[in-house]
Structure formats: C-alpha cells, structure tokens
Write a structure and sequence with these properties.
The chain has helices at about 1-10, 15-55, 65-75, 80-100, 100-110, 115-120, 120-150, 160-185, 185-190. The protein is an all-alpha fold.
C-alpha cells in the first residue's frame, strides 16, 4: 500500500506542475543568456569592424594594412578586441617570421612591379631596400591596434605592458629573424 501511495503522490498534478515551472524557468534563463551572449558577440564584431576601419583608412581590400589585418584575422581567428590582444604576440613572433609571404604582400599591395617580382636579381635588391621597413610597418600596425584597443577600453599601461614590449621588440627583431629563417639551411632555420 505504501508503494501505491508513493506512486500516486509522485504522479500528482502539483509535482508535475512544479517540475514544469522549474524547467520552464530554466529554459527562459538559458534563452536569455543566449540572447545576451549573441548581443555581446554582435557588439564585439561591430567594434572590431570599427577598429579595422580606423587602422585601414584607405579600405581593407588591397591596402598594406588591410592585407596584414586579414592575415591576422584568418590565421588566428580574430573577430573581437579580446582575441586581437591575445593574438598580437603570436602574430609578431610566429606569423611574421615563419609564414609571412613578403612577395605576395608586395604583389597584392602593388609595392613592386611584376618585372621586379619575376626577376630574382631585382627582387633581391627590392628585398634588401624594403624588407626591414615593411616588417617594421607590420609591427607598428600591431602596436597601433593594441593602443587603439587599450585606449577604447580604458586599459592601464600595466594591463597590456607585455604586448607593448612585444611590439617594441618586434620592430628590431622581426626583420632579422625573418631573414635568418629564410637564409639558414633547413635544419638550422627550424631550430
């Protein structure tokens, strides 16, 4: 008899209603949280587009800044300011040294003519005259990005000191590391 009474009590409308109300409230809270998260994502994406426009006043398509920012976004999956700040040091120390295709960048941005790009001797002179300046430009772009985000979010200097230092060091070290990466024999360049 006690088992039958417990079964009846468990199946009573009051218990089911309380469970349904609890589930309904939890579902509403989850939906509200998802809506807030979606709104935050949209806001972050809109902010990131604004930053891109400020850094690329001539447009994102074929400007030198735009090409670098596109690579930065694609390589590190950057869609927000937080992701950008998190990825700047890796972009400077990994991408610009190991993956950056200088010749393609010069082609897309119109920095060198097809004659220069096709002739190894001319290309070598062009690289000698422009590579250091262009890699410093890329490092400077990352610093401008960091400063822009830090200013907009009111970050204290100590909050992004490591990024500031990485950008400053990159101006000196990235061109040398880039050249060593390509100039040393295989095993040494990967070390």
């Amino acid at each position: 008899m006690a088992v039958a009474a417990a079964a009846e009590e468990a199946a009573s409308p009051v218990d089911v209603g309380e469970v349904a109300v609890t589930v309904d409230v939890e579902e509403k809270e989850e939906l509200a949280a998802e809506e807030v998260e979606a709104a935050e994502c949209k806001e972050q994406a809109a902010y990131w587009l604004d930053v891109r426009k400020r850094l690329c006043p001539c447009g994102i398509e074929d400007s030198p800044e735009g090409w670098l920012l596109r690579c930065f976004e694609e390589w590190y999956g950057v869609t927000s300011a937080v992701e950008a700040l998190h990825s700047i040091k890796a972009f400077l120390s990994e991408y610009l040294i190991q993956e950056f295709d200088y010749k393609d960048w010069c082609r897309v941005c119109g920095k060198a003519s097809e004659k220069v790009l096709e002739d190894e001797e001319r290309w070598g002179r062009f690289v000698e005259d422009n590579l250091v300046k262009d890699l410093r430009f890329a490092s400077g772009l990352m610093l401008r990005l960091a400063v822009s985000v830090a200013r907009d979010f009111g970050l204290k200097p100590g909050d992004w000191k490591d990024i500031n230092e990485a950008c400053g060091n990159a101006v000196r070290t990235v061109p040398a590391c880039y050249q060593l990466q390509r100039g040393l024999p295989g095993a040494l360049s990967r070390a």
